[in-house]
Amino acid sequence: MKQTLLQQFTTLFVVIDPVGLIPVFLALAGRLDDKQRARISVKAVLVSGVLLLGFMVLGQVLLNSLGIGMDSFKIAGGIILFIIALRMVLYDTHTGWGGEEGGKSEGDMAIFPLAMPMIAGPASIMAVMVLSDSNRNSIPDLMATGFLVIVMLTVTWLCLRLAEPILKLLKRDGTDVLSRIMGLILAALSVENIVAGIRGLITGG
To answer: Which end of the chain, N or C, is less surrounded by CB atoms within 10 Å?
Structure first.
């Protein structure tokens, strides 16, 4: 069953979690001036965009070359996404980066940990590969998914650029609650992927 554009957008929004990135971004770059933060946010989004769109286009080729079926990948990806969802719901997902990366340069900070693994991490890479299953989706479907990826990255860039006012508006507790709600949504979406993968293996497609 093809996922609707709304389902795809929801999946991308949840796995990338642009609002949840705000405390991490400020912990890493909060002491820098606005121009430096602007450069970091642009570079992080561009690098992660190249990675996500690259996996969207070439991911199926990679799986085929390894002899891995998309249904098997959906099951494996769903399990991993479910684990990530549990972590979002049960643990504090916004800590662990700030004190460790303080000595990094702008470029290093933009690539790691912002571009990878925070934006283009295992969850989002698996998500775009599952959503862009070229065996079942037409070229217009793939173009629509690619457009949604670009839209989602634009939303992420806006959240990073407006990090301080958004954090003041939501406060830390607000971002934590929102992250846990998105974790619940991601858990449900991951179960859907697992069920779809199992159904595909049983029916042969």
So the answer is: N
Q: How far apart are CA 117 and CA 127, in angstroms?
A: 14
Q: What is the pLDDT of residues 60-114, one digit of tens each?
A: 788 888 888 878 877 887 887 788 778 767 765 444 444 444 455 666 789 887 8
Contacts of 152 (CB under 8 A, 6+ apart): 9, 12, 13, 16, 18
Question: In this structure, is the dihedral angle defined by the CA atoms of residues 14, 16, 22 and 28, taken in order, positive or negative?
Answer: positive
Residue 98 per-residue DSSP state: T
Contact 143, 5 (CB under 8 A): no
Whole-angstrom distance, CA of residue 169 vs CA of residue 39? 24
Q: Can you read off the two tokens belonging to residue 167?
A: 């954090």
Nearest to 13 by CA among 112, 140, 155, 121: 155
Question: Which residues in 26-55 are b (16+ Cβ under 10 Å) and which e?
Answer: bbbbeeeeeeebeebbebbbebbbebbbeb
Cis peptide leading into 165, omega within 30 of 0?
Answer: no
